[in-house]
User: Fold this.
Amino acid sequence: MTFKQSLFLGAFALLTLNAAGQEDDLFALMDIPETTEFTYATFKGTRVINAQSNETPGEGVLQYVISHRFGSFSNDYLYNFFGLDNAQIRMQLDYGITDRLNVGVGRSSFNKVADAFIKYRLLRQTTGAKDFPFGLTLYSSTNYRGARYTDGVDHFISDRLSFHHQAIFARKLDESLSLIVAPSIVHWNLVPGPNDPNSTFHLQLGGRYKLTNRLALTGEYNYGSNYEYSDGQRFYAPFAIGVDLETGGHVFQFHISNTNAMSDPLWMATNPYNPLDGSLFLGFNISRVFTIQD
Amino acid sequence: MKKILTLALIALTTTAFSQQYLTREATLSFDAGSPLEDIYAVSESASAVYDASTGKLGVQVLMTSFQFKRALMQEHFNENYAESEKFPKAQFTGVFKGGEAIGQLTIHGETKDIAVPCEILEADGTLLLNAEFPVDIESFGIAIPGTVADKIAKEAKVQVKATLKKRA
Assistant:
């Protein structure tokens, strides 16, 4: 083979290779490069159970939540018709001003507490081109006790106020498992004695595990910095386990917990029920969303 | 030496005559609505490729790029139906022949052979691709629970519109 011939062959080979390469590459060309995606549906509802999740309703979405906590197993359970006779109720109406900002009001029967809250998704978990490992949602509520005091003392309106502020760190670890860690502060304007702390610190841990696309197990535990007060009251750390069921615009949350109050400071900081005494409550939250603005 | 030059020229012209067309801004929409519920989503960032010399045609879309009017519906689409974390993309690969796109359609990790009407028109050096075809949702393994069966169409109407530019 002469030099020229080999050159010719080489060029021919290159040419055919080139053409073949183009063939195979055609479908590779359309491959969409990785984009950055906000992690969605870390939780189905705006609450894990009692604890707030990192989720907010989308922009223009009005959410109505009705919650019940039935009577304790330890309190004449059958006589009280499975606890239904002493059910506590909370109603909540909230609105998504933007995809990140959510405001709402609620009313609980326990202590006749009215509350207002604001919730803001500061950071969102992302995957894809840019990974951000967790979401951070801020939540704050103001609670007004409507129940009359029975201590015979004249109370200021400010005595009736209590507050709850928290930072909810959330991570969707995989398709099924999501967790929250939420350091929180509860502040009471009025406490039993001068040596009792007005503010207590709480750490909420919660999670959900998806069994199917529409069914998930949930659980949460809440540790508080002070459960004993000078007037002899003794409180217990609240916990709950439950099931989330989602159908279209509804989320049904059924659970069992050792709390029956639903306004934030009450269930978190002053829960008098010891689960070891059998003080456990069945309950549910049902949310329905209405898209007000498309 | 002359021969080598000629060959080089041939090689160059072959490359220049590449008949590949591409876009990353194709519009891909679907309508799976019913009289009870308006379910419509559109992605403006689908990609499409076409090789005019071989007739090979490909279309791809990221499931999470579909925009719905309602954020919750979009979340449900990704989380409960398309399962976009598991199956991030839907795509068609095949050929364009005699007014039809013939090949494999992959949605939700399931691949099916399809042959659907398709139109490719030339205009000012670009190609306009138009296709509209039904997709049987459950045949791609996407389960629709009984409680919402009345609200979601059995067949989604898919529409693809793309302006493909010649690859340099």
